[in-house]
Amino acid sequence: MATAQSRSAARLMMTPAVVLLLGWMLVPLIMTLYFSFKRYLPLRGGDLGWVGFENYVRFVTSSAFWPSVQTTLIIVGGVLVITICLGVLLAILLDQPMWGQGIVRILVIAPFFVMPTVSALVWKNMFMDPINGLFAHLWKFFGAEPIQWLSQASLPSLVMIVSWQWLPFATLILLTAIQSLDSEQLEAAEMDGAPALKRFWYIILPHLSRAITIVVLIQTIFLLAIFAEIFVTTGGAFGTKTLSYLIFQRVLESQNIGLGSAGGVYAIILANILAMFLMRIVGKNLD
């Protein structure tokens, strides 16, 4: 049992890390709040003084704000559905004994370690190019006209690219959960004559519920800030401008730090609303 002295020593050793972490989070947040109330144009006059809530009103009333929020939620929702559904199937397949099982698992997990910009460039040039891309040759083989993926089907294309990158993460978490399942339950159900579909629905899927909620929570946090894939592929055109990309345009392209900071505060609010909602779901599944 830990004594009061040992607990005090533990708190003392943890203090530098906690202070550094709080500073790492709070300093950028305070600076964002500070600039959001100012008209700050670095290349067009610098600090032009306080404007109150003018930046917030301008950002939320912009014609691009609500479409960017909708696009963000569509991409997040589409990626979550694809990665969870395919992740469950891949996890079940990888759990089965097979030749070269270790190599197959490494190949499945490998895309997660590819940089987002690299993965987006590979998909853009190798697969989705309307002339020399693999999909174009596949369409021509079947006598169909190649699709301009990044202009005619921009959102599905982005969902496909991001899903490919995040599928290994979901598969790894779900595979770990499946391997913790008591095999005696499945064997007993199989001996009782339960078909494979019912064993999956009533035994495997409930066991994976906690892992699925964790995957949803972690992926949502990162997907809300999706940027690199959009910057490399569509540049925010064709209805692919997310909230984070809109903030980038306001800060770097328009050189309006105050307006971009107000957008950052809105992004923080959106992320916290989704996080609170998801944490309630996670909390119920972890009880």
In short:
By secondary structure, the protein is mainly alpha-helical. The protein is 74% helix and 3% strand. The protein has a domain at 65-240: MetI-like fold (Orthogonal Bundle), CATH 1.10.3720.10.
Would you kindly provide a written description of the structure presented here, covering whatever features stand out?
This protein is mainly α. It has a domain of 176 residues: MetI-like fold (Orthogonal Bundle), CATH 1.10.3720. 74% of the residues lie in helices and 3% in strands. It has 13 helices and two strands. A hairpin with a 4-residue loop joins strand 1 and strand 2. The mean pLDDT is 82.
Query: What is the overall number of helices?
Result: 13
From the N-terminal CA to the C-terminal CA, the straight-line distance is: 26 Å
In total, the number of strands is 2
- Which strands sit side by side, in order, in the main sheet? 1-2
Class by helix and strand content?
mainly alpha
Q: H/E order of the elements?
A: HEEHHHHHHHHHHHH
Q: What ranges have pLDDT less than 50 throughout 5 or more consecutive residues? A: none
Percent of residues in helices: over 70%
Sheet bearing the most strands, described?
2 strands, antiparallel
CATH architecture of one domain: Orthogonal Bundle
Radius of gyration: 24 Å
